[in-house]
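[recover] target loaded
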């Protein structure tokens, strides 16, 4: 069986879980073609991502004459199906935030993707994210392309399900994947109960480079905390800085590293300057090896998110035996259990966040080791990339049968 993966941006710094899923499926013997709309290769610092860049075919890099040829060929060979897809694209576009013109562009992209599918003899397409990538895949299917499935991560899809026509994408699909039980419940909200059987749970996973690591003890005496994530509103870094400022004023000694970059970097730097915080460092984009190094040097990871799916960085921290402070958001409580393998606080509650950080810093090394052991067992049980890829493969076979 030959599979195709289709993603809006691939590879991408924050999409390592997709790469792991693809590689785990290839290990199971599947041949997989990678397709994407685009990528930002200047952000790619991980050698594995750079290898994936060479294996991926990009719609927006194709020559205009090739795109036009695919468009005209689709009309000539399947005029009725093209009319159905055109009608669908217009209807979706008129009731979406992206508008009619963008959906007509998606239709043109779908024509090209359709020809690529046929040339590669693709049996099934799997997309990630229920936004524009799945729109293109669905339109290609309506044009006569392969059946498809897609993974919904959140929070973006759950913020605007009607504007991205999530229910229609599910109805046309062979099945849809949620990455947590919480995500599954949100998908149930937007489709009739008769279609609930289409919703499967397949977790994002970690590979052996994380799960087969020897026990990594927390460096004695370290008071370094690490926050990993794109510098943006939903990750809660500004709230974290408020907590750091209060702890600094109370004389609590520790340092914080913000690993990542993003649209709010200037705002965060301005807040650091305003609060006169000396103990915060921003790394910018870094590769997975550097992320591992920083986690191993740290006492814990802090992720005070306002909106999430289920962050892979939490899995990575637990796999490296580092405790996590995060929030009661989406699928996070399915992995982090307060009092057992980490701390959870209400999102947006700076006082609760401050007290959790203080409690973590005051927890003895031996008590933290117990917390870390429980977290490691949890992530191995729930987030093994090979196990989860086998689940996905099973759903594909079942759907085709």
């Amino acid at each position: 069986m030959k599979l195709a993966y289709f993603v809006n941006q691939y590879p991408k710094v924050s999409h390592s879980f997709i790469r792991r899923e693809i590689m785990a499926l290839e290990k199971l013997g599947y041949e997989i073609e990678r397709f994407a709309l685009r990528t930002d290769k200047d952000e790619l610092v991980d050698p594995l991502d750079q290898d994936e860049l060479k294996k991926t075919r990009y719609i927006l890099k194709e020559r205009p004459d090739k795109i036009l040829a695919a468009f005209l060929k689709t009309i000539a060979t399947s005029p009725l199906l093209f009319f159905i897809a055109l009608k669908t694209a217009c209807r979706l576009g008129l009731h979406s935030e992206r508008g009619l013109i963008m959906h007509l562009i998606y239709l043109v992209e779908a024509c090209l993707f359709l020809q690529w599918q046929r040339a590669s003899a693709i049996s099934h397409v799997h997309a990630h994210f229920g936004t524009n990538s799945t729109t293109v895949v669905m339109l290609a299917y309506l044009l006569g392309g392969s059946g498809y499935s897609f993974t919904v991560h959140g929070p973006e899809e759950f913020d605007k399900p009607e504007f991205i026509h999530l229910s229609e994408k599910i109805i046309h699909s062979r099945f849809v994947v949620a990455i947590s039980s919480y995500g599954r419940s949100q998908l149930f909200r937007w489709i009739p109960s008769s279609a609930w059987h289409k919703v499967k749970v397949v977790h994002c996973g970690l590979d052996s480079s994380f799960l087969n690591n020897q026990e990594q003890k927390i460096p004695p005496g370290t008071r370094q905390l690490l926050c990993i994530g794109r510098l943006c509103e939903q990750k809660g870094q500004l709230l974290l800085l408020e907590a750091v400022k209060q702890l600094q004023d109370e004389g609590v000694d520790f340092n914080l590293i913000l690993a990542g970059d993003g649209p709010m970097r200037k705002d965060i730097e301005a807040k650091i300057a305003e609060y006169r915080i000396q103990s915060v460092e921003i790394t910018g984009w870094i590769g997975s090896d550097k992320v591992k190094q920083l986690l191993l040097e740290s006492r814990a990871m802090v992720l005070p998110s306002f909106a999430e799916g289920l962050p892979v960085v939490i899995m990575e921290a637990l796999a490296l035996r580092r405790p996590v402070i995060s929030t009661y958001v989406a699928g996070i409580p399915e992995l982090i259990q307060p009092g057992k393998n980490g701390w959870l606080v209400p999102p947006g509650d700076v006082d609760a966040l401050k007290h959790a950080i203080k409690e973590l810093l005051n927890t003895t090394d031996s008590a933290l080791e117990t917390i870390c052991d429980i977290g490691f067992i949890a992530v191995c049980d729930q987030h093994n990339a090979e196990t989860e890829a086998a689940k996905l493969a099973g759903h594909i076979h079942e759907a085709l049968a």
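[recover] notes: The longest helix spans residues 99-120.
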